[in-house]
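Researcher: Here's a chain I'd like modeled. Treat it as a single chain, no partners, no ligands.
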Amino acid sequence: MRKFLGSTITIMVLFTLLIGCESMPEPVTVGIEQSGQSVSLQVGQTMIVRLESNPTTGYTWEVKQVDPAVLAQQGEAEYETLETQTTPMVGQGGWQVFRFEAISTGQTTLEMVYRRPWEDAPPESSFTLQVMVN
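Model: Modeled as a single isolated chain. Structure tokens:
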């Protein structure tokens, strides 16, 4: 009887631990190729937006539109250089990397523009993504 009770308790503890260890879905990475498309995320899931950029030209990607109650930017954009370059070089291109977290269920449009912030001119490029959070 003691063995049965001990085994039952062990199984219940393991089952509880497995339920508690429900894994969060992997981050979704999108780039300029997905512009104009849609993506589905789960609440709590991370979306990484990786867009080609060369800030030495003065151009930078900016978030123009997003509903932060549905999809919130996590920190500032990071800049990644080309992996083939071991040392950063002036004029070298790379990527601006933005991280967003799906906050609550709903739908939002993520719109980003590539422009020189001080110029009153149309953006050089744009990125739009429909985001549905379940």
